[in-house]
Amino acid sequence: MVSVLILTKNEEQDLPGCLQSVSWCTDVWVYDSFSTDQTLEIAKAAGAKIIQRTFDNWSAHQNWGLANIPFENKWVLYIDADERVSESLQIQLQQMAFDEAEVVAYEIQRRDFAWNGTWLKHAQISPFYLRLFMPAKMRYERLVNPVSIPDGLTKRIEGFLDHYPFSKGFRYWIQRHLSYADMEAAMRMEDINTGIRFSFRKALFGKDFTEKRFHQKGLFYKMPCRPFIKWFYMVVIRRAFLDGSAGINYAFLQAIYEYFIVLRTKELKK
Hints:
alpha/beta
């Protein structure tokens, strides 16, 4: 069996659908950062268990949760309130025997959907995430967009985790990414000050997806004209145009987010 972990703060809009998608699970935990809306009432009504902690940064918050929440099961599925467990993923999870002793985590393919319901199949840069794991064998690093660090082997399972990043509208998406840019810029400055080295070999040929992404991101932040490079990569290399206008517009939004990080980093250097 699997336990479910959902991170929340003022998620009264998205939480009902999220909880409905995991209603098959008997051990659902809502890990809340002191919401001021109806989030807790919604969680209680659905029979979820609640634990609260003041949010400081993503990795510290997630690591605390994995270390302190008394899950009933050995395996945990971590999802956000704006995500939904698809029927295909539910079936996979309920049928899994978890009999591979060396495996400590599983990658799940996430489908990001645009504001108009379009699956951003080509525009989405990172489709696979380590979301099913043994808590004792998982930790996170980075203040934002945390990197999953499993202590053991990983594999990939079938089924989709559906993500709706625009469920609260464009204004919320932009505001949230402004806060992400603050943390990304802070980490960029820390990398500069500590002289951390990133590997081209691991960025291109690393077998572990998480490690590969870590080095790719580190090297990418050193490149000039990053907003344009990101847009070009998404539209031309990944062929975001195949997702229609939603894919092209999403690429522009991601380029703008990258520009937020550039501007914030310059501001911190002063």
